[in-house]
Design brief:
Layout: H1 3-29, H2 35-50, E1 54-61, E2 65-73, E3 87-88, H3 94-100, E4 105-107, H4 118-126, E5 131-139, E6 142-151, H5 160-187, H6 190-199, E7 204-208, E8 214-217, H7 219-225, H8 229-232, H9 237-240, H10 247-260, E9 267-272, E10 278-289, E11 295-303, H11 305-314, H12 329-346, E12 349-358, H13 360-367, H14 369-385, E13 392-397, E14 400-408, H15 411-425, E15 429-431, E16 434-436, E17 439-447, H16 454-470, E18 475-478, H17 481-502, E19 506-515, E20 520-532, E21 536-538, H18 544-547, H19 551-573, E22 580-584, H20 586-589, H21 594-604, E23 613-618, H22 619-624, H23 626-638, E24 642-648, H24 655-660, E25 665-668, H25 670-675, H26 680-695, E26 699-702, H27 708-717, E27 721-722, E28 731-732, H28 733-743
């Protein structure tokens, strides 16, 4: 009798693991273009498994706004995705409060929610929901969204196992969506990578169009194949470097890739030098679709001649560890490369597990190295025995081992092997009447999810192993691939911005502000630009976000202040006095020495009227730490400069806060101005801001005046000051005076 519940529990666990494996395989195997479709299919499977009527995914942007991005509904249940967009996760809803604090929401009976949840109960009842569970999706302590299930046709109660299942599925979706976001960011660096390809000294990179004609031939290709760039450009690939007997096959293979998507795998090839010599190269290939829809083939070739010579040297040495008989580091490297090549061909995963024994040093210290060596031999046999036939276990020194696990379709496939390794490593071994026992800490990374070279894979697994030790030992720990990639990308961007600042590549542009009723010039806003040597003129959105919170943000801010005051002095000397507003970052305005630094700069330019300088502070920056910011703003105002609250209406102002801040001007955010002609809500917001400005005796200026129609509407509302493309685009300093005298008199917004 007792066996029935146990059998049922075992069956349910088996079915749940099958579901997790199925979902993981679907997500891992699909490309990013199919990801949304695959996620909704997985939601279907999930809903059927837990007996729910609707399953869904919400993604969160700007920390407070949730969008229903993915959904599955049972027959007879109305879809809600098209309605559940731009939802504000306000603190007044307990549901939103729990999600924002990374807590699970479990409502088994919506109708029975307490009175404090009355508003929430009404909203959920309107959607026909009788029961729900929602689990937050978190990456690196950052809330990305939440995954949930609803009961619509009848109320249901789900247990903790369902919560756990939702969390696991949410983590898989989170990883996939974050990888998709990373790919988008990587595409933005294509121009920079092209420069690297052109100049990298040891890797030959070529680019061919759909007719296989050369359009990219870097310096390393000149060295490897003997053709100069001028000789190669425009010539077909097969006429340059392909041996005559292989040309027909190469043309057919490239044509099949272009027309049918039959990818050419990376491999060792025999190609031809200009002088007729045959070359052994390792060639990788990427097919790219240009912005105009044309196919481009990129080949990355590495000369294998030095490697072949090194292989001959290595063949003279032993490939196995003398003590344990396991493969050594040399053979491990060879096996890992083979596994990686196989994974590319078969589209499977390879797990690299770095294993370090816990407590082995004490055995050596207490009983000597001879007994310690015998212990390692016995332990190596146990660990090798629990691996599969296709796996490799190597000893790379001391009590450190590496296991390579191939033929994996998902992370779940390698978990049983890792658990067996932990059990084997902790098995007691009897030697000379002693019962000896250790444990193991294992770090794991997976290729190609961790798409780096083999040496880097080992280093990443090593890093994860140390995390396993710090977490308590006798366990395995996965390497955080996404965090590593983001850190590398950010560090590279910060280095490039620093170099650009040192090389004087940054400039200021100036966007005029006018009285739209009288066409009187009211001043300009200073806007930073990066005159990048390869990418051209870059807007702040291309480089400022990465500096947020970094010391470089303060350095850029100080540069903008100095440059703007110097320009005001230069204009003053030529008889053109221009009031100027400057954006100040949150980190700048919260710095305790900001006011003193501003005073020092103002004293450096005594002929610049201080009242002509205005500091623009983002609404969110000013209110994030109002207690510390307010005294600094008061000190700045005491110097004679004016203060404006930028992007007003997008933050979380209250009337009390607005009253406390020593500001002179409100800037209406361009998002409201841009859509006010079609969106009555935006129009109402602008009317409210204007009323607030009048109530607090503040100036007000509208950003984003894109057309004359926007200007006329603002004037009807009583807003006279504006800036935007409908008035003038940001321009270099030497053009502003001419615009004021020549173009502004002819401008008509009324």
């Amino acid at each position: 009798m007792d066996s029935v519940p146990s059998d049922l529990l075992l069956y349910q666990r088996f079915e749940q693991e099958r579901l997790i494996s199925r979902i993981s395989s679907a997500i891992v195997r699909c490309n990013y273009e199919q990801l949304d479709e695959q996620i909704e299919m997985c939601l279907h499977w999930l809903a059927e498994f837990v007996d729910s009527d609707r399953s869904y995914l919400f993604m969160i942007r700007d920390e407070m706004i949730a969008d229903n991005t993915h959904e599955w509904c049972a027959a007879g249940v109305s879809p809600q995705k098209m309605y559940l967009q731009n939802l504000h996760l306000g603190a007044e809803f307990p549901f939103a409060h729990q999600i924002r604090h990374h807590q699970v929401v479990n409502y088994p009976n919506i109708a029975a929610l307490p009175e404090c949840c009355a508003g929430e109960r009404t909203l959920l009842t309107q959607q026909g929901i009788q029961s729900l569970i929602a689990v937050p999706m978190v990456s690196n302590k950052r809330l990305l969204g939440f995954i949930g299930i609803d009961a619509v046709l009848k109320p249901r109660q789900w247990n903790e196992n369902v919560c756990h299942l939702l969390r696991l599925v949410g983590e898989m979706f989170t990883q996939a969506l974050e990888h998709k976001r990373t790919e988008t960011l990587l595409k933005a660096s294509e121009a920079r990578l092209r420069y690297v390809f052109e100049t990298i000294p040891t890797i030959a990179v070529q680019g061919y169009d759909a007719e296989r004609r050369v359009f990219l031939w870097n310096q390393a290709s000149e060295v490897l194949y003997g053709y100069t760039r001028e000789e190669a450009l425009g010539r077909p690939l097969e006429d340059l470097i392909v041996p005559e007997q292989d040309r027909e096959y190469v043309v057919e293979a490239i044509t099949a890739w272009i027309e049918q998507g039959a990818e050419i795998p990376a491999a060792e090839l025999t190609l031809q030098h200009k002088d007729g010599r045959l070359l052994n190269v390792f060639s990788s290939h990427v097919m790219h679709t240009s912005l105009v829809g044309e196919k481009e083939l990129y080949c990355v070739d590495v000369d294998l001649t030095p490697l072949k010579q090194a292989q001959k040297e290595l063949e003279k040495r032993a490939h196995f560890d003398a003590l344990t008989g396991l493969p050594n580091r040399i053979l491990l490297s060879d096996r890992l490369n083979q596994m990686i090549s196989s994974s590319r061909r078969l589209e499977q995963l390879v797990a690299v597990a770095y294993l370090d024994l816990d407590g082995f040093k004490q055995i050596n210290d207490l009983y000597g190295h001879t007994l310690g060596d015998r212990f390692l031999c016995e332990l190596a046999k146990l660990m090798k025995h629990v691996l599969r036939e296709e796996d490799t276990l190597a000893r790379i020194g001391g009590d450190e081992f590496v296991a390579i696990l191939g033929g994996l379709n998902s992370l779940i496939d390698c978990e049983p092997v890792l658990k067996r390794l932990l059990v084997a490593a902790s098995t007691p071994i009897q030697l000379e009447g002693l019962n000896l026992r250790v444990s193991a800490s294992i770090g794991v990374t997976l290729y190609p999810l961790d798409d780096v070279d083999p040496d880097q894979l080992l280093r990443h697994a090593d890093q994860a192993m140390y995390q396993a030790k710090q977490a308590g030992k006798d366990r395995y720990q996965l390497f955080d691939i996404q965090l590593e990639a983001e850190i590398r990308q950010k560090q590279q961007s910060l280095r490039e911005i620093t170099q650009g600042l040192d090389a004087s590549e940054f400039v200021l542009f100036y966007q005029p502000k006018i009285n739209m009723q009288t066409c009187a010039f009211e001043g300009a806003e200073a806007l930073i630009r990066w005159q990048h040597p390869e990418r051209g003129l870059l807007s702040p959105a291309a480089f400022l976000p990465v500096t947020e919170g970094h010391q470089l943000e303060l350095r850029l801010g100080a540069w903008v202040l100095r440059q703007a005051l110097a320009q005001m002095q230069a204009w003053h000397d030529m008889g053109f006095d221009c009031p100027l507003s400057i954006n100040i970052s949150a980190q700048q305005i919260q710095h305790p020495e900001f006011a003193q630094a501003l005073k020092t700069l103002l004293d450096t330019y005594p002929e610049v009227p201080k009242q002509m300088l205005q500091l623009e502070i983002l609404e969110t920056s000013a209110l994030a730490d109002i207690e510390s910011v307010t005294p600094i703003l008061q000190q700045c105002r005491a110097l004679g400069v004016s203060l404006a609250l930028d992007d007003f209406g997008t933050g979380y102002s209250s009337l009390a806060y607005l009253k406390r801040l020593p500001i002179d001007c409100l800037k209406i955010d361009q998002s409201f101005v841009r859509d006010m002609l079609q969106d009555s809500d935006d129009l109402s917001i602008i009317q409210g801001i204007l009323s607030l400005a009048r109530a607090f005796h503040l100036h007000v200026i509208a950003e984003g005046v894109e057309t004359a129609a926007h200007g006329r509407q603002l004037l009807q509302l009583g807003c006279h000051l504006g800036q935007g493309y409908g008035i003038a685009r940001p321009m270099p300093a030497d053009q502003l005076s001419a615009w004021v005298h020549n173009d502004l008199p002819n401008l008509c917004l009324t």
